[in-house]
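Model it.
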Amino acid sequence: MSSFYSFAIDIRPAASSFPGPVESGVGNAETPVSLKSLSSDLDRYEAVDDRGRHLLLLGNLFDRTANRIVSPSDFSQILREQDPIQALLVDYWGRYVAVLHHAPTGHVELVRDPSGQVPCYYRQDIGQLHVAHDADRLFVEAGVPDPDWSILARHLRNPMVRTNETCLHSVSELLPGLCVTWSADRLTCKPRWIPQIEANLIEKPVEAIADRLKREIENATTAWARRFPRPLLGLSGGLDSSVIAASLRAHESDVNCLNAVFGTGRGDERSYAAAVAGMYGFPLHQVLLKVHDIDYSRSLASAKPRPLSSAFTQAIDRASADVADVCLADAHFSGGGGDNIFAFIHSSYPATDCLLDTGFGAKYRSTISNLTRMTGCDMWQILARSIRHGVFAHRPFAHRVDVRFLGEKNADALPVHPWIERGGKRRPGKRQHIAATLEAIHFTEFLNIGGRPTIYPLLSQPLMEYCLSIPVWRWSHKGVDRSLVREAFRRMLPDEIIARRTKGSFGQLFEAGFMRNIGVIRSMLADGQLAAQGLLDRAACLDALSRPEKLRPEVMSRLALFVDAEAWLAGRSAR
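Modeled.
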């Protein structure tokens, strides 16, 4: 099976008579939009109309009304719309990258769907735009690009903040929900999809919101199961992966589940996973993760234009790939992103949003009570903070930065994604909700289960739209986190899953892998490129590593970020 997310296209926007769509999988010099390669997990849709418009979509596409896979024969109707890109975002959903070329003017639009489950990078050349799923395919004939040290420095301050700029010179990323327009060698970028808040969800009963939420989760999951009918579901036994399992109940004969174990306590969730798998008769494969599969000197992200991998996930990737081979799975399904879109926010921000939405009334008092029970914080502290945040709600959103161990203590604010700037109605909690959703989308590139795509049903566009439209304070009903999801599936999951408040963790695996590689880590940080470029405080890093028995988990995580970047740089140099 070909590697996941594989595609490459070249675009020449010069106005000319339209020569027709590509006949084979390989483009040619006469074709304005040339498809160079495509992997089997991505479908190809192509259509042309009598106005000289050519629409090419690479990915998986579903009809929003019928929730079915769009057939190639139906794809041409999108070009009947005045704005085909808008029609894609409103009437359809999936994971895709689409190109609209208007031959008479040479105008090109490139859009990536809001779920971001298909990476998309581009490079502008003289009279040509190269687009691909990884950086190397943008430089088939050119040399390997150099690192952009200024963007890498920004990455080290907060790796979850991304713009169209990447850590490689001349390589840009098309962010989810955004559109690049290109004409006469002039390139601009703008948002095409912005999260919206529905005012009527302030008053709607919990049961009605939960019922709609259940339908959206089930619709998304079953649609993906039609496209990939033999999924291997990563079933931790947590709420997020469990609701996906419940939504796959009609596909019992084709679903396999994987539960990965390392250590004890939060690292062992076998009893929870077994309860869910047993309820629906799914085969459950339990694997013990191996710390010797973790090699900090190796990066799985070397083909990507950012160091988007974590060394400790190598053990998870290996175990998942081995089980997928045994099961003949055609995709890996993950519950990743659930905490993010289900507004798992432990702060006073939901109370601030409620205050701004409803004023000093019963709903505000109830929300403060809910957050007190959910977080364990003092009621008066939540009250004071929510009022203070409400007073300053007009201030621009600011990302948190971490300058620990950095050589360059840059105080500049990090860029803010247009979803946050334009989609939060100046609600601090909703802005945090959107920012968390963007982080979840970025994390979809961290798993690398070779040969198979990883599908994140909970990040499907219709479900994302609905979750982001719900005020964040409505997710903590009765003092319970993600209460709307629990209400939606309380009759469809074992009681211990609905009542569960603890969360699993691979913290023991991460710490064991870090300590096993401590010598390699020390050498990489002492003699690596980051320190040579002045981005790292070499002395501070070595001082922390000199007492490994006293390293706190949060310090390990911080240092691991630098080592992952060093491994990425080394991998890039070797290509």
